[in-house]
Task: inverse folding
């Protein structure tokens, strides 16, 4: 789904989102009031400028609209791969965006992620994966790397990766895998405005993704391991 | 006698970084907590899944520590590995140590379990930010052979401070990844001088991406970490607005630079081409008050 159609469906009562190149921001009206929306289009690679701009938009909301929920709708093919972005410290810009999201959370803003088209690797990591809860549309693409590239890097035969991906959610692309592992809370179909209202009304209690992944059978060890490290007596 | 941080493994680093004999490991190798995702791909497992976590003291003060082992899959993060770091950071909420020290050495997400690794890194990021929000400083040390890349490069910059050696490298996409994807003309990963001056410790320090530059000596890392124990985490709106302005100025000031030497020249450093040749003390003297 393209971003304009998405926004019309999320906010039938209207929105004032402004698009500028790969970036957009603004607010929409929903049942509970105004929701800030920050995102990107066209599978934008996230480089230092875009990460900085999205971080600035989060800070604007925190400063000017205390408590307003924030919806991150980031369409990205991943972090921008370039010598120049590395030279200027792109990981610092990505981390800055993550810190701004944490600031919003700490100050009582509900932060939701919605993968409406594509979410890949570092671009996903610094945005929607840092939300309180992340949702996705059923036809969204979510991945770290496609299987042919993964085969080249790991030197594992493509056929083997393809075969194993039928039964294991842990490495292959696919929104269903992220759903099973707890990173995507639910897939949104039908009335998106209603889905958004329900998500804004749902209680949030820390990072529950490990427990969700365990309950869904997609990630069986993360919760247990973290719990043991947190609570085991030291030797 | 100096002990190279670069040459040491994760356990050796911890043993010398912390007060002698103080380290106690959590979920040690004897617990056999290995990755279930590697055997189906015939990849070897490690009994600690490539990360050592536990508690110890530094200068008599309690700290929690996590050290990634570059010797196992380049320190890459999988489900168990990531969950150990997350659990460690959450333990800090209960124990309230003086700090959490992360000895990062990682190429990023482990591709054999890429989805679990990516989600795991996001959980580590949230746990870092939660620990800092609770007032517990999280300090990062970088100086191993595999550097600090991928998701761990983002994790590191979510922390309070980074101590790096000249040999340390810090970035997001490694030079090999960029070369493979975009071509050798974009980033020649075999040009060692180019790699070091782009992602190496000296440039990271000058840019303001790392807070301390130390010689490749575990004792020097220890001294820097000790000094940073009293860092007060600040994730306030004012602090993030200041960071925002700083990062914006960096784009304005250096956005058109195509090589680290252009940036060093613009910083007003005399004879920037000689910087890679200087030892740490000479380098710090030559660049004093010239950092971005």
Result:
């Amino acid at each position: 789904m393209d971003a304009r159609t998405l926004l019309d469906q999320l906010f039938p009562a209207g929105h004032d989102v402004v698009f500028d190149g790969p970036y957009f921001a603004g607010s929409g009206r929903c049942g509970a009031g105004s929701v800030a929306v920050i995102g990107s289009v066209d599978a934008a690679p996230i480089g230092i400028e875009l990460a900085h701009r999205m971080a600035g938009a989060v800070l604007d909301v925190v400063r000017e609209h205390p408590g307003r929920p924030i919806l991150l709708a980031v369409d990205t093919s991943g972090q921008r791969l370039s010598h120049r972005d590395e030279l200027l410290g792109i990981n610092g810009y990505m981390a800055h965006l993550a810190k701004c999201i944490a600031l919003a959370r700490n100050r009582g803003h509900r932060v939701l992620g919605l993968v409406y088209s594509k979410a890949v690797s570092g671009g996903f990591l610094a945005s929607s994966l840092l939300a309180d809860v992340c949702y996705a549309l059923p036809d969204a693409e979510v991945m770290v790397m496609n299987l042919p590239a993964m085969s080249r890097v790991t030197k594992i035969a493509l056929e083997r990766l393809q075969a194993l991906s039928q039964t294991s959610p842990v490495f292959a692309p696919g929104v269903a895998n992220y759903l099973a592992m707890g990173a995507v809370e639910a897939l949104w179909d039908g009335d998106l405005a209603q889905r958004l209202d329900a998500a804004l009304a749902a209680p949030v209690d820390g990072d529950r993704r490990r427990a969700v992944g365990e309950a869904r059978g997609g990630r069986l060890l993360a919760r247990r391991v973290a719990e043991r490290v947190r609570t085991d007596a030291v030797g | 006698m100096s002990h190279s941080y670069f040459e040491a493994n994760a356990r050796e680093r911890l043993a010398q970084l912390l007060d002698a004999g103080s380290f106690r490991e959590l979920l040690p190798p004897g617990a056999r907590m290995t990755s279930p995702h590697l055997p189906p791909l015939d990849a070897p497992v490690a009994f600690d899944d490539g990360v050592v976590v536990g508690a110890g003291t530094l200068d008599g003060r309690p700290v929690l520590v996590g050290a990634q082992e570059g010797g196992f899959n380049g320190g890459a993060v999988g489900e168990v590995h990531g969950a150990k770091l997350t659990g460690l950071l959450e333990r800090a909420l209960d124990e309230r140590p003086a700090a959490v020290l992360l000895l990062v050495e990682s190429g990023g997400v482990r591709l054999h379990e890429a989805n679990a690794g990516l989600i795991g890194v996001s959980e580590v990021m949230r746990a870092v930010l939660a620990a800092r929000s609770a007032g517990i400083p999280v300090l990062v040390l970088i100086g191993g052979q595999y550097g600090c890349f991928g998701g761990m490069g983002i994790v590191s910059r979510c922390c309070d401070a980074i101590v790096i050696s000249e040999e340390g490298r810090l970035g997001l996409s490694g030079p090999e990844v960029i070369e493979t994807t975009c071509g050798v003309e974009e980033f020649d990963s075999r040009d060692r001088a180019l790699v070091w001056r782009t992602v190496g410790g000296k440039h990271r320090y000058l840019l303001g991406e790392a807070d301390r530059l130390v010689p490749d000596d575990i004792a020097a890392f220890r001294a820097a970490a000790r000094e940073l124990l009293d860092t007060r985490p600040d994730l306030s709106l004012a602090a993030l607005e200041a960071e925002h302005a700083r990062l914006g100025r960096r784009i304005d000031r250096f956005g058109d630079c195509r090589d680290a030497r252009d940036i060093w020249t613009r910083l007003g450093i005399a004879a920037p081409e000689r910087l890679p040749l200087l030892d740490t003390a000479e380098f710090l003297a030559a660049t004093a008050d010239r950092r971005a």
About this structure: Strands of chain B lie at 24-26, 51-58, 61-68, 99-103, 138-142, 161-165, 212-214. The mean pLDDT of chain B is 97.
